[in-house]
Amino acid sequence: MTQEIRHCRLLFFVFALLGANFGQSSFAKGSQNSIVPHSAAYELKLVHAVSGSNIIGVEGFMSYDWSRRCDGWTNDQRLFLALNYGQNQMVRFKAVSITWESSDGTRFRFKINRNGMGQDDERIEGEAILEERGGAGEVLFEKPKAKKIRLPKGTLFPTQHTFQTLAKAISGAKFDRQLVFDGDELEGAAPITTVFLPKQAEAVLKKPVKGFSPKPVYPMFQAFFPPTSRGRDQDTMPEFEMKIFYQANGVAPRIFLNYGDFKLRGDLIGFKESPKPAC
User: What Cα–Cα distance (Å) separates residue 40 from each residue in 14, 30, 36, 63, 66?
Assistant: First the structure.
């Protein structure tokens, strides 16, 4: 009856500005001041359930708090879902992800907790270090058990990946594929592919949100594949998919999450800009 929901990675669409270290990107050079570190909350509603899944309803809530620090960025991200299978069968799921990523994109600390869906509580903690941004490295897991995994050259951490993805969307790119390590599983980096759609007019919210200013959006489809450490071929189907509507300032007013058996729509219902430190 229950479906395993693992991917905290769906929460890592918070856009972080990584400053002048991003080389010659025109976006990095010219639009740094337009990026808005922020907290956001989303209401999640069911838009489709596969026949035979027995799911008759899903409701949920997703939030994140993105904070700038002098040495990097912290993210406190939370997902709550309630799946209704009928006949008084309600299954709940909760995931919490707290991470820190260094300003130069070479260090990443993570604490992830999941419970519900008929599964035992799960906690994953550790730190990953790259030799250089986009270079090889390793991850040292501390929980649920000590484990070391090598990260191949080309690995990115979530903030760096999101930066590059949005920069490519704004530049008019059509497709992107990167290896990303996010700490979501006790495994190594995993491929994420992105298909960019044409720029659209501002997304219209169901209700006005205090502090949020609607602007044109850059829609994109993202597919999350199994970690390369599993040794599967390139024809492997994605484990999770989502569609994001990004504004150029990094704010996403709308998202769609595809878990296979069911799809959810997330609409922004709360927004607040985060203060920047005096470094």
Answer: 9, 25, 11, 6, 9
Given a cut of 80, whether residue 175 has pLDDT beyond it is yes
| Environment class of 197 (CB within 10 Å of its CB; exposed 0-12, middle 13-18, buried 19+) | middle
Region of residue 166 (left: phi > 0; alpha: psi -120 to 50; beta: else): alpha
User: Taking a C-beta distance cutoff of 8 angstroms, is the pair 237, 226 a contact?
Assistant: no
Number of Cβ within a 10 Å radius of residue 268: 22
Q: What pLDDT band is residue 266 in, cutting at 50, 70 and 90? A: very high
CA 31 to CA 27: how far, in whole Å?
Answer: 5
Q: Where are the alpha helices (DSSP H) in the chain?
A: 26-30, 158-171
Q: What 8-state DSSP symbol labels residue 12?
A: -
Instruction: Note the pTM of the prediction, 2 decimals.
Output: 0.83
